[in-house]
Automatic annotation (TrEMBL), chains A, C, D, E:
The active site is at residue 161. It comes from Halobellus salinus. The gene is argC. The lineage of its organism: Archaea, Methanobacteriati, Methanobacteriota, Stenosarchaea group, Halobacteria. GO terms for biological process: L-arginine biosynthetic process. InterPro entries: AGPR, AGPR_dimerisation_dom, AGPR_type-1, NAD(P)-bd_dom_sf, Semialdehyde_DH_NAD-bd. It comes from the Archaea. This is N-acetyl-gamma-glutamyl-phosphate reductase. GO terms for molecular function: N-acetyl-gamma-glutamyl-phosphate reductase activity; NAD binding; NADP+ binding. It holds the Pfam family Semialdhyde_dhC_1. Catalyzes the NADPH-dependent reduction of N-acetyl-5-glutamyl phosphate to yield N-acetyl-L-glutamate 5-semialdehyde. Belongs to the NAGSA dehydrogenase family. Type 1 subfamily. It is found in: Cytoplasm.
From TrEMBL, chains B, F:
This is Lysine biosynthesis protein LysW. It comes from Halobellus salinus. It comes from the Archaea. InterPro entries: LysW (IPR005906).
């Protein structure tokens, strides 16, 4: 248990109750975790790790965190904390999980390492798994589909950003039995450049990456696995990189067996999300912002979902939009940690975003 | 320009020109399709589609 | 017949053979027409019309054409020319067609007014038609699907940009009988801001429009009509506005009855486009640019098409990319005019684009 | 005095103490005021006015505020509140000031109407002033130069965004007597598109406005007046529009009489800002973010200032960066209101920004 | 002497007269050279070199050149040609100049290696020079200041892009004796991301680089040397990176001794540039594009210059805008080669740009 | 967190904290200014401004 962070960020709040560390703190999602935890009333930050930036101040990498009085430490030197967040590339957590669990009672992993349920899935979609024995224990972080299992969870797997967007858009249709699971579903995704993480190659340099609509995952592979695992249906997934930094937008084209009305759809989405603190349904209406779009949720933990009926083609188009850095990773991870520890679930995640905003 | 030879693009069946001195295992791009082709053998030259670069964009 | 334009833009070329005017020259596609015609070896520009900018120089509106020695004239004062290009909003040409045809033997219209074949279609998709008697006479401008009918045509309807992108991507699959016409086809389109024309409202102001992925035609309406008319199949169309100025990218998700191989697909696209001077097939390979993308054709009359196989879902994903200002409007119009008049079809359209380029 | 806003945005906080309204709530700075006040622990929002959007929900215009349960009212129907914020175009407040002061004890105006001290200045730089009698009473909002006069102030004039950026950058040099006031000072400013407000014309449409470096105030006029009024020196001001939505960046080129060292400069900026909660000095160092830049403060009330020495030219280059929507308008206004009312000065303004972030 | 390039790009043109190669053809300026030369009526392209991309097709790197039937060769295997263009990083040409001159009678170098006149300058501003004996022989490529010396030149040094922008803006003031050379001149530059070349690091990744105004050369160093060498005056140079891909914009703030009128300024710029085929003066007027801006010249070899008078501060503000890939490098190099060989100086450089255009 | 020591920032004269086990020649960033400082000696620790990374943006 640690004392409060002395810089008065959470004025009026009681002393933080839990200590936390971030492995991979120099990366993009790691930086978001640091930002959220630094302002979170119930967490006190102990360590942020980086190999390449060790000893440097947090602000050296994340200019928005210049006020933080902390330096990166090597990931080998983990101190004991209450919660450890791992924001490392795929494959790292499964190798280092023993060290992580030794350092912390609760481990929240942002990579794909503990999302799927069985070794067979990792054999099919990835290069196998180093610790299949733990797959049973881990809980998927997305509260909108797994709220019930989070309290007390000690190994939590934060969802993939594209999968999160698709699942949030489609799930109400399954719950309401508008879809049964054997329909063909096209998931056409558009994502920003932060999805690639901090270490990009040629394709992510500004001159090559700006102004694009670029197919980067023409057929889906791994993203499909996660959607299938949680919706129980296979999907036809395609992702495009577009010119924004944050944001993932999924457009799902679905063809229900039986005709549905707009009222049915509103009912399905209301049933699914009316009580969810971070979900909004946006479907038509006036003004500039009529359907979900990443700009409207940029910087926030909110997810927007919406739909339009296409009676001529007997199609429903479902739109969903999230910030891949927040609802799609760091925000989802903290949301799940809040629930695991029994805290107010919105703690540290209240920011509602900006207007106007460019390409955040 | 280095000497070129004519061979068949395995994806399209088209005649394409590639450098004459390619080595087995080398990756050349097809002028017909831009696709990356692996040189399977050199005498005669046979090509097949190169295994896809598994590029993980960090998901 | 007019003399050459004296400013020496086409050095070495013989005197231009045809005169041309542009109605709607102050708009976006009108500006592109002016640019192309000004440098075209066979055309001499007579008039560019604008009501709001009349008497102003062309360069007042189009800064890239400051060297042109011409001022806008009111659209009511049309002189007699060989070819008249109309780049006016939907509904104008059908009202003014008699004046246009009186002024010129060949009329090329960039609006939707003469694209569909029957009054019934205009009743269904638009607000009817003022001159249904002319619908039979008009020829669709896109050479890749209507080359044979263009020589000698005197009323030419340039295609819609989204429809052009979709048609170019899908047509080879129909020609090769990989698709039969009764399959479900999802057409998911991403477009730039110039598609809205020069007179935008709130939603197209820079602060609201930048950095977006915004559903703007969630279900397709009019664009579907045109695709259906030329492919003979209905499609499920959805369009999104993204942060680029030029460009339309269509991702078509199709499910053929019978299994196909990559070789079949390469064959289909080669058969369709090997002889086409403005079409490229880009499907995989290495480097940064592996599939069609608007950046790679920005500023040009080229269209890129490509595909990927998704055997697990028995799906083909077809990508196509054009510059909506060029292949999707002004370039297509000039291409068709070249063919109508028996000129070299690439005349005036040789520009191959830039690299690197931002969001052109 | 009002009750708390029922939606739990300020959990744990006591009931808000003050009521506030925003005139011009449908505009850009008005939207930011609404956002800040909605989450501010000490304010309860009573009204937001708009003529064009009256009766519509706040969320209709500002998608980040969809959760707010409030509709726009006409500006003529002002209720009595503690603080009224006016975010209207220049000229409105001076006409309506009696109504504003009747409605509220404290009026904070974001326009230029009460920034300058004398009628003569309004005659020179603007079209005169309708209520010169009030110019003496009003206080300039920027705490870094006017903190002492804000407690108890009842008419507060929030600074211009470009002037704020320039003043923050230059002031330490005057305080430290590195500059005396008779030197030539070049102020070269780069600003984002939100500076133009919500109702843009042709030049601010996305196709025309994106990707630009466009001189929009080649010589300074009004911005110079405000800088001169508060720094006591005339400046050579030039502003350029660049491709971002939020942000103002001022580069000041100054030539001190006597040689200075980097240590002198660090001393000057530390003396000026070490105790200021919203100011950071960033001047060299490693990593990507070495000098002030708007991205690093986007969405926040922070200002960054920094400098570099150019001994060869005996020049100091001073950089400063703010978010024009926050430190340059709405944030500054709330900061001043906090001080006027004796609240914690950072209340409602704690957000520290995002990383990575595109063009926010 | 080579035969024509067989693909018919220059229809109607006679056979190309000269052969050319590009060393560094996989880079950004090298790609532009390839594009220009490929369409140039008088050049036939022999080789393009790259170490990292050797044997790959040109189109693998430059998607706009997919039609070219050429593969990269290693820079060690240079064939004999008429003109060799070197687009390599600083330091390469001075080491390899003997090989270059053996391969070609005319060498055009795009790096800084042969721009300055004396070894002393390279000692001061760079790390010395390997071949000072050649500095006397080389000619600066910019025709607007060195036209007379280009015919017959066999070693040509293409100017730096920022220096080119500044020199073009300021030179008319020196020629007209409005400036004498001892005035203080501030050169405040804004540049796009292609200026950094194809191999960028962290700071040029899309998430870090987009939406910025970032001081990257706070005080000028090397750029000042070149400006000083050709204008005979020292300048206070500062450069900022902004969110565009192509473009360099220089704003020069100058204070002439004697008062000048707008008429004087128009006279000075007309005298300097009226006969120049690639220069435009844009200074005020109506519409959206009133002063020079990079968008208006993107993709072209044009330079725009303009000015505004600031009588209150006795200042002239000079704006200039170029495309750094064209007038600032590859275009300037070909322009100079045209003049060196006695060709039509505009050959291959006729493209006048696009409207609208995003951030090209 | 590793042990820290207090020393003087050579640019500002301010007291700053840096890791206790720095080595001579190491570059540390100043928490006061963000500037990169070179460790000149370690006993006691003295710092000076690190030579600037000459970053050529390709001009
Ligand atoms: N970006 C997104 O939108 C997003 C969304 C959902 C999920 N995710 C997942 O979140 C994870 C992090 O993604 P990111 O985008 O933040 O990546 P990133 O920016 O590349 O950051 C990766 C971090 O991990 C550290 N690291 C790398 N290898 C390591 C190792 N072997 N041991 C310890 N630390 C190591 C890196 O720092 P050092 O190299 O300095 O140690 C860095 O701090 C990935 O698994 C990704 O799939 C990302
Ligand atoms: N933008 C695209 O990507 C695209 C692609 C394919 C097809 N199109 C079609 O091309 C046409 C033009 O589109 P755009 O984007 O260029 O539009 P735009 O930028 O809005 O330009 C419209 C032009 O028409 C003129 N105009 C408007 N009403 C007129 C009238 N009643 N009589 C005469 N002139 C009139 C306008 O000038 P004044 O008001 O000054 O007279 C202006 O020059 C439209 O039909 C559009 O659907 C556009
Ligand atoms: N944007 C910036 O970066 C910035 C920075 C510093 C200062 N400012 C100043 O802040 C003020 C607002 O700027 P903004 O950018 O927010 O402008 P904006 O987006 O154009 O908003 C103006 C607002 O004022 C309302 N309004 C206009 N005329 C009115 C009238 N006669 N009576 C009552 N309401 C009226 C408008 O709504 P309805 O028309 O619907 O009533 C709208 O809500 C301006 O004075 C500006 O100079 C702006
Ligand atoms: N970018 C601009 O705006 C601009 C403007 C004016 C002047 N310049 C100057 O133009 C030159 C090229 O700039 P750029 O932006 O095109 O750079 P770039 O994109 O980095 O390209 C550099 C090229 O040089 C090749 N190269 C690198 N080292 C080499 C070596 N030792 N021997 C042979 N080839 C080598 C590279 O290919 P491989 O590594 O594959 O061989 C690549 O093709 C630089 O000197 C730059 O200062 C650039
Ligand atoms: Zn961008
Ligand atoms: Zn943009």
């Amino acid at each position: 248990m640690s004392g409060p962070d002395g810089d008065g960020d959470a004025p009026g709040a009681a002393d933080p109750t839990y200590t936390a560390s971030v492995v991979g703190g120099s990366g993009f999602t790691g930086g978001e975790l640091l930002r959220i935890l630094h302002h979170h009333p119930e967490f006190s930050l102990a360590q942020a790790t980086s190999r390449s930036k060790k000893r440097k101040t947090i602000g050296h990498v994340h200019p928005n965190l210049r006020e933080m009085d902390l330096r990166f430490t090597p990931p080998a030197d983990l101190e004991s904390v209450d919660v450890l967040f791992a924001a490392t590339p795929h494959g790292v957590s499964m190798e280092r999980i023993d060290a992580f669990q030794e350092a912390a009672d609760t481990v929240v992993d942002l990579s794909a390492d503990f999302r799927l349920g069985t070794e067979a899935e990792y054999d099919e979609w990835y290069d196998g798994h180093a610790r299949p024995d733990l797959l049973d224990e881990s809980e998927y972080a997305l509260p909108e589909i797994n709220r019930g299992n989070l309290p007390g969870a000690d190994l939590i797997a934060s969802g993939g950003c594209n999968a999160t967007a698709a699942i949030l858009g489609l799930k109400p249709l399954f719950d309401a039995e508008i879809l049964a699971g054997d329909e063909r579903i096209v998931v056409d995704v558009k994502v920003g450049s932060s999805e690639g993480g901090a270490g990009g190659g040629d394709a992510s340099s500004h001159p090559e990456r700006s102004g694009i609509v670029r197919p980067y995952a023409p057929t889906g592979h791994r993203h499909e696995a996660e959607i299938e695992a949680f919706l129980g249906t296979s999907v036809s997934f395609t992702a495009h990189a577009v010119d924004m930094t944050r944001g993932a937008s999924a457009t799902c084209h679905v063809y229900p067996e039986a005709p549905v009305s707009k009222g049915d759809l509103w009912g399905a989405y209301r049933d699914a999300y009316a009580e969810e603190p971070f979900m909004r349904t946006v479907a038509g209406g006036g003004g500039v912002y009529r359907y979900p779009e990443p700009k409207a949720v940029a910087g926030t933990n909110y997810g927007e979902v919406g739909f339009e009926l296409d009676p001529g083609n007997r199609r429903i188009v479902v739109f969903s939009a999230i910030d891949n850095m927040m609802k799609g990773s760091a925000g989802q991870a903290v949301h799940a940690a809040n629930l695991a520890l029994g805290l107010d679930e919105t703690a540290g995640l209240e920011f509602t975003g900006l207007h106007p905003v460019g390409a955040p | 320009m280095a000497d070129m030879i004519t061979t068949e693009d395995p994806l399209t069946g088209e005649e394409i020109e590639i450098p004459a001195d390619v080595e087995a295992g080398e990756i050349v791009d097809s002028p017909a399709t831009g696709a990356e082709l692996e040189v399977i053998s050199v005498d005669p030259v046979t090509l097949e589609e190169a295994p896809e670069l598994e590029e993980d964009w960090g998901e």
